[in-house]
């Protein structure tokens, strides 16, 4: 009888348990809310409210944070899963007129819908079948990075943050993927194009081993903010083998003692309408 074997490493999650939010500033809260809620079909957080100065948008178990300021643009794209691509395309068509004169546009493709927010952020919307039945969420963020940096970035996440990561492809065209919990990845895609200057947008992650990464980053003078007991920030990704600077993206690093860890996020069913209302179908389970 042949003994069955298993690849146990493919079940490893690593030190990063989740990528919780992407923070990009926007100049117009009303327009941002209209785009993310009415257009994309996401949900404004009903509990944490900042009035006209910020809005948190729930996308399954993840969020967009959108404080008021000059617009920030991610160098790359955000990947999201939505319940229905046809419904999404219909909503985007309905909001197009109000968003005219901005950078907003969308294109329906065979397997996804590419959307540009009013200030230029790229969002790729996938159907649930693309991500093992996830109905609503943010399974990846893809960053455009300079050529010949992907392998060093993979080493940084492996050795400093304890996250499984690998780079594939030839130099100049390589892609690094870093696991951030059981269903999310951070993707770093080499580009030969001149990249825009970093404008300060950030991501938030939760880590199990909170102190080891801090020890390395502090020794290398890379800590950009000592926030509180449960959180610190760093901005520069370096190659741990030689200290070379590779890419800038601020990380809001949180411990599992952070009061917002594993917080339940409310999500509405974007298909629910006043006309044709269906009782008991208000909420969306991601």
CATH architecture classification: Roll
The fraction of residues assigned to DSSP E strands is 25-35%
- CATH H-level name... which superfamily? 2,3-Dihydroxybiphenyl 1,2-Dioxygenase, domain 1
Beta strands, count: 16
Let me know the largest β-sheet: 8 strands, mixed
Task: Indicate the low-confidence ranges by residue numbers.
Answer: none
CATH class: Alpha Beta
Kindly identify the CATH topology: 2,3-Dihydroxybiphenyl 1,2-Dioxygenase, domain 1
Order of helices and strands: EHEEEEHEEEEHEEEEHEEE
Biggest sheet strand line-up = 2-3-4-1-13-16-15-14
Helix content: 10-25%
Characterize the structure shown:
This protein is of the alpha+beta class and 286 residues long. It is built from four helices and 16 strands. It has helices spanning 29-39, 85-95, 150-159, 210-219; strands spanning 16-23, 43-44, 56-59, 62-65, 76-81, 105-108, 112-116, 122-126, 137-146, 165-168, 175-179, 185-191, 202-207, 223-228, 231-238, 245-254. The strands form two sheets. The chain has an eight-stranded mixed β-sheet. An eight-stranded mixed β-sheet has the order 6-7-8-5-9-12-11-10, with helices on one face. Helix 1 runs antiparallel to helix 2. The mean pLDDT is 94.
């Amino acid at each position: 009888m042949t003994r069955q074997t298993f690849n146990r490493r493919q079940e490893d999650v690593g030190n990063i348990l989740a990528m919780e939010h992407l923070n990009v500033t926007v100049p117009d809260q009303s327009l941002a809310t209209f785009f993310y809620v009415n257009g994309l079909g996401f949900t404004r957080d009903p509990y944490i409210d900042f009035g006209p100065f910020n809005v948190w948008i729930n996308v399954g178990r993840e969020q967009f944070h959108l404080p008021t300021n000059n617009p920030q643009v991610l160098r790359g794209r955000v990947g999201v899963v939505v319940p229905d691509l046809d419904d999404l395309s219909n909503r985007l068509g309905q909001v197009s007129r109000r968003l005219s004169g901005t950078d907003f546009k969308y294109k329906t493709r065979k397997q996804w819908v590419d959307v540009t927010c009013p200030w230029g952020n790229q969002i790729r919307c996938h159907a649930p079948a693309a991500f093992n039945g996830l109905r609503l969420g943010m399974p990846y963020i893809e960053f455009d990075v300079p050529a010949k940096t992907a392998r060093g970035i993979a080493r940084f996440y492996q050795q400093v943050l304890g996250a499984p990561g690998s780079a594939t492809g030839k130099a100049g065209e390589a892609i690094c993927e870093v696991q951030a919990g059981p269903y999310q990845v951070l993707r770093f895609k080499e580009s030969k194009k001149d990249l825009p200057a970093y404008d300060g947008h950030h991501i938030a992650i939760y880590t199990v081993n909170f102190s080891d990464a801090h020890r390395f980053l502090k020794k290398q003078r890379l800590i950009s903010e000592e926030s509180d007991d449960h959180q610190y920030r760093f901005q520069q990704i370096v190659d741990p083998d030689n200290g070379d600077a590779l890419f800038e993206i601020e990380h809001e690093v949180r411990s599992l003692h952070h009061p917002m860890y594993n917080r339940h996020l409310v999500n509405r069913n974007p298909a629910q309408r006043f006309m044709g209302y269906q009782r008991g179908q208000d909420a969306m389970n991601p």
